[in-house]
Automatic annotation (TrEMBL):
Pfam families: EIID-AGA. GO terms for biological process: phosphoenolpyruvate-dependent sugar phosphotransferase system. It comes from the Bacteria. Keywords: Membrane, Transmembrane, Transmembrane helix. This is PTS system mannose/fructose/sorbose family transporter subunit IID. The chain crosses the membrane at residues 28-54, 138-159, 194-214, 234-254, 261-279. It comes from Breznakiella homolactica. GO terms for cellular component: plasma membrane. PANTHER family: N-ACETYLGALACTOSAMINE PERMEASE II COMPONENT-RELATED (PTHR32502), TRANSPORT PROTEIN, PTS SYSTEM (PTHR32502:SF23). InterPro entries: GatZ_KbaZ_carbometab, PTS_IID_man.
Amino acid sequence: MSQFGIKSLKEGLAPEERKQVSRMYWRTLAAGINFCYSRFMGNGFAYALMPFILWLYPNEEDKERKVAALSRHANYWNCEATMHAFGVALIASMEMQAAKNKDFDVASIEAVKMSLVGPLSAIGDTIFWVTWRVIVTGIALTFSLEGSIIGPILFLLLYNIPKWATRYYLTFLGFKLGRDFLESAAKSGVIQHIIKAASVIGLVMIGGMVSRMIRVPLKLTFRMNGIEQPLINLFDGIVKGFLSLVVIFFLVWLTKKRIKPMYIVFGSMAVCILFRYIGVF
């Protein structure tokens, strides 16, 4: 039997652990629950982990550690839905280590979590969204074009059943790999290198997101040597995407001032509408 077979992955787990991981799997099906643009799938991540964390900290004296664990997972997370289960399970294994060892560096949990977003999304999107979805659509269309109800039913079954099965497998794989790896890594001291690497990857990924997702469509111009020049070119001449960086640093500053995310979202919308109306955008 392969060491990565589902039975092998369940071996070595206590009955209560298996129960909690299975419960985690069912909750990962609600990956997009309460989706919002300040956290993306962060609420779904916290929802999947919540029963597990409550199980890790059953005593009243651990209330502060329990609250801290729940709070650090109600932040940004964005991942392809199937690979989301692997990320949740791996982070759950880290939370278990943190619960057992009070000296565990909990900063590594958030660092590793952020580093998983890019790779897991790339794998999941390539396999399920780009490849498998297109194959299944081609199969289902042969029936749908003939007017058969089998077409849409076949699409739903062929697309979703493999995803659900894969998600179940990845939940136990992520938990088992994470637990075994973290135990050996803690003994060898390699965990500090992982924290550093994960932090760098996370910062690079956030920088890439800023350049791709934040746009400042400035329409103002100025005259130079008798020629109209877009003002945006002046800023981009300093640093490409300079205004995008200014916007993101300003929003970060607002969050540090404890301004509620909804105020920031609606405030940004109001400013954009106003600037569009007066011709700035």
